[in-house]
Structures are given as structure tokens and as C-alpha cells.
Design a protein that fits this description.
alpha/beta, about 15% strand, Rossmann fold, six-stranded parallel β-sheet
Length: about 190
């Protein structure tokens, strides 16, 4: 099976995440997209995150009606901080029957050369890249022409979990930005207020 790994803290998962994940699941050669809930990104501060299992619960609720979208807690038991190369090695060992790819936005592609063992990731794994509205520096030239970089013509989604958290804290209605089951859970649990 061809599996695309869509990493994120999903704090919270929102309709932008779902649109991108579903678009790639439906319009690429991937069989499934695994939404990998990251307990701690090397680039994000841990204190702003909800509990790992609360974020996984939101991803589960958001994806339960999408058979090609699969929530994953694979990184929960790996050493911290999580590095993509370690997760990929672990998945290769646990699931030799699958072929893994990465899914990332253009913004992350630009910083990919700075990742731990980036050259191995770029050489060994297809990377599906969805567009972002960007103004800063361009994608490094060596990545532009790499055969493992697959540009996906997905909708541009300019929605962030940070914006949603800040809006909830400010008492704004963000219900249209979240899958209904996620909104219900956030509201019930009083998160981000």
C-alpha cells in the first residue's frame, strides 16, 4: 500500500487540514493518507499543545467518515523530540509491506534542507507538496528539479490552528473552520478558552 504521511500537531485539526489530506488521497497515486499527530515538533513549543490523546481524538473524529484518511499516534511512543527520519525508519521496520511518502506544504519544503538527515529523506521518499501562499525566499533549486518532489495542484488553504486558538480565546465564532465533530468536542471540553 502507498501511504502518505501528513504530520502535524493538529492543535486543533481544521477544515484546511481535511481539504488538503482528502484532496491528496483522492487525486494522487496514494492509497491512504495517515494524519500523524506529532507530540512535540522540534520547531514548536510544547506548552501551547493540548494533550496528545485529546488532539488524536479530534483527528479521529474529523476523519471517521473518510476511509482513505487514517489517524496515527505512531510518534507517541518514539523518543522526543520527534524527527521525521526516525519516524520513517520506525515505520519501515514496523510496516515493510507499505511504501511511505511525505506530504508537506511548500513552506515546509523550503526549510527541508535544514531537517535532520534531509538528504536521506529527499533521496529515499517521495514528497507530495501542496501549494501555500508565500512571499519569502524561494524553494532551494536542488529541490525544484528533484524527481522525488511531486507538486500537487491542491486548493490553497490559508487557515491556521494558531488563528483558530486565538479566535476561540477572544470569544469569536470559528465553527465553520472546524469539522462539526471537532467543534462539538472543543465546545464540550471548553478547550482554548
Amino acid at each position: 500500500m502507498r501511504i502518505g504521511l501528513f504530520f502535524g500537531t493538529y492543535n486543533p485539526i481544521h477544515v484546511g487540514h481535511l481539504v488538503i489530506a482528502n484532496h491528496i488521497a483522492e487525486h494522487s497515486d496514494l492509497d491512504q493518507v495517515w494524519l500523524v499527530v506529532t507530540p512535540q515538533s522540534p520547531h514548536k513549543k510544547k506548552q501551547s499543545l493540548l494533550d496528545n490523546y485529546q488532539r488524536l481524538e479530534m483527528v479521529y473524529r474529523a476523519t471517521k467518515e473518510y476511509p482513505k484518511l487514517v489517524p496515527s499516534a505512531i510518534e507517541f511512543n518514539l523518543s522526543q523530540p520527534n524527527y521525521t527520519i526516525h519516524t520513517l525508519a520506525y515505520l519501515e521496520e514496523k510496516h515493510p509491506e507499505h511504501h511511505f511518502s511525505l506530504i508537506m506544504g511548500e513552506d515546509n519544503l523550503r526549510s527541508l534542507p535544514k531537517w535532520k538527515n534531509a538528504e536521506v529523506i529527499i533521496k529515499e521518499y517521495p514528497i507530495y507538496v501542496y501549494p501555500r501562499k508565500l512571499t519569502e525566499s524561494k524553494t532551494p533549486a536542488l529541490l525544484e528539479k528533484d524527481a522525488n518532489i511531486i507538486k500537487i495542484d491542491a486548493p490553497i488553504m490559508e487557515l491556521s490552528s494558531t488563528f483558530i486558538r486565538q479566535s476561540i480565546q477572544a470569544g469569536k465564532n470559528v465553527r465553520p473552520m472546524l469539522p462539526e465533530a471537532v467543534w462539538d468536542y472543543l465546545d464540550e471540553m471548553n478547550f482554548y478558552k
